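Sample entry as discussed:
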Amino acid sequence: MSEPRTTPLIFCRHGQSEGNRERRFGGHGPTPLTELGRAQARATGHALAGAGVDLIYCSDLSRALDTATLIGAELGLTPEATPALRERSVGEMTGLSFEEARLRYPEAYAAMMRREADACPPGGETYGQCRSRAVEFVEAAIARQRGARMLIVSHQLTLYQLLTHVFGVDGTQQRGKLILQIDNCALHRIDHVEPALWHVWSLNERTHLARL
């Protein structure tokens, strides 16, 4: 019987965006990286230079794609962008400050703040819809590139759903019960081992950002 083949994964949230700095809902909007966000991405690239990354997948939203591109420049890799790794869509709340969203859409905002599993911003998507597309993409990438070391650059809520998938819990039900720190450009190192075993090495690694 052959030994299970391990596929190393590194999850990374994009660098600080203008929406993060201004406390606005980013969703599927085009909020760009700040100068700090770009510095975080470059520092992450330096930190991963000896990690043996084979390929990079990222969200096609500019803050994630720009982060992945800056990291890839340090690694000699060109990222492959996909809408499957986008942040959860917040529909009509996109670009609004948290206070603006609370005033315009009080019921929907309150449901989101309560972390209700089926909460859906007007014109947006639920946690479950976000989870399904992201998990499906990563599982397919593992099956397609078994043994390759992959860097996945995505967003806070999307990475939350991917990490809870790794833990074997339903992230759509855990938002009000389990907090996972997912900082800008922090790293989460996880191995996928056939057939259904995950090995978590580190979560929210950010020593490479200490000087920023």
